[in-house]
């Protein structure tokens, strides 16, 4: 039972970033998103990956690998959208 | 050394939501934030708290308690801002 709670917990925290990635791809709206948050988060998740690898815990490694990819997707999409918006502003000026 | 990596990883993933909370409080801009993401994340973090409590691992419990509070703050501020925006729209109509 305790293990099941851990598995559900890990699944939730890992897949939680999926709706954010989908929302950005659909709406292209990234204005309220904090890049500092995703920067610190990605660093932390990357270190969790390293930790999982070093202690040979593949569950920790792979769960964080997925979160790392999703958080990186949020960062990439946000930066891309902001650069594209900045370009539009420059063209308007 | 491995323990230190784990501690830095946990610190990063726990405090990463602080800049998002500060940004919302400063700018009141929540338009790009996915509430589905924070809903799933808060469920997962809540289950991690329960898991930490059940296996008597107070580090897991308290780290997730902080993340839980920060994610709840993002949800509360986002819902509050969206309700306030919706009210303004209703008044304009």
From TrEMBL, chains A, B:
Residue ranges of the TM segments: 35-54, 60-79
Entry annotated with the keyword Transmembrane helix: yes
Subcellular localization(s) per the UniProt record: Membrane
Record-linked InterPro entries: PQ-loop_rpt, SemiSWEET
Domain of life: Bacteria
Keywords on record: Membrane, Transmembrane, Transmembrane helix
Membrane-topology annotation of the record: Multi-pass membrane protein
Protein's UniProt keywords contain Membrane: yes
Entry GO CC: membrane
MF-aspect GO terms: sugar transmembrane transporter activity
Name of the protein in question: PQ loop superfamily protein
Organism lineage: Bacteria, Pseudomonadati, Pseudomonadota, Gammaproteobacteria, Oceanospirillales
């Amino acid at each position: 039972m305790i293990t099941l709670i851990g598995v559900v917990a890990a699944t939730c925290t890992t897949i939680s970033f999926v709706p954010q990635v989908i929302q950005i791809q659909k709406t292209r709206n990234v204005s309220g998103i904090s890049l500092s948050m995703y920067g610190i988060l990605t660093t932390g998740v990357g270190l969790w990956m390293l930790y999982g690898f070093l202690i040979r815990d593949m569950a920790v490694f792979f769960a964080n690998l997925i979160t790392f990819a999703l958080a990186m997707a949020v960062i990439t999409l946000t930066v891309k959208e902001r650069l594209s918006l900045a370009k539009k502003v420059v063209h308007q000026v």
